[in-house]
Prior knowledge:
The protein has 236 residues and is mainly beta. It has helices spanning 74-77, 195-201; strands spanning 2-6, 11-14, 26-31, 42-44, 47-50, 66-69, 97-101, 104-105, 113-120, 136-141, 146-147, 149-150, 155-158, 161-171, 179-180, 184-190, 216-217, 229-235. This is Putative trypsin-20.
Amino acid sequence: ICTGFFIDSRWILTAAQCFDGGKIEKTEIKIDVNDYTSTQNTFRTKQLIISDHYKRDEQYAESDIALLYIRVPFRLRTKRKILLVDTDWRNLESRKCLAVGYGKGAHNDTRLHATTHLVKHHYGACGCFRNIEHRYLCGQIHGLVDTCFNDAGGPLICNGRAVGVANRLLECGNKVNDVCGIDTFYRYTFLCTELGWISRYVRSISHHCKQPEIGLLSSSLRMTPMIHIIVLLVTF
Length: 236
């Protein structure tokens, strides 16, 4: 199970690692469902494109992004909600960040979840896993401890725009049961570094972004934007 989101009327962005299992038989997409066991709004993808720069590495999976092309039925076209990709990174202090996805967690359920993060971008942002070449955004929970939530492909949303794609849950200490604390980091592929590749296929996306001047994103909570979060069911 992976998460994805529309960045254009026919393009879905997700994580490349979702397709690592071998020869893919089919990829089913469920649009706008709160529970991924729902049978409503289920479709097949028309095309899968994995980043040319993707490297399958357990610790440092570079360019962990993929694009899915889908033709949405007419009855859903007018209702489809697109999450815009942010290209302005000059004023990061005021960003409000939210992670959304269907990933595995202590909740042990099949529903969509949202969590807030204090997100950083500098070299040491990911704790014991170095943020080489600033390719990632890494977040920590907003508070002392919380239940762990591990997702792949879901968006990191700051001020209503996508800034990252969920990559991996990193643990730099001794985790007790399913509780995550100050030694747990949520890593996201930084979309600012991937816009050149994305824009080759999605023409509505800018090919460059304005680089950040500082490395801190606000963790203040805000409501989930009105977007369509996608469930990906990949069969190998």
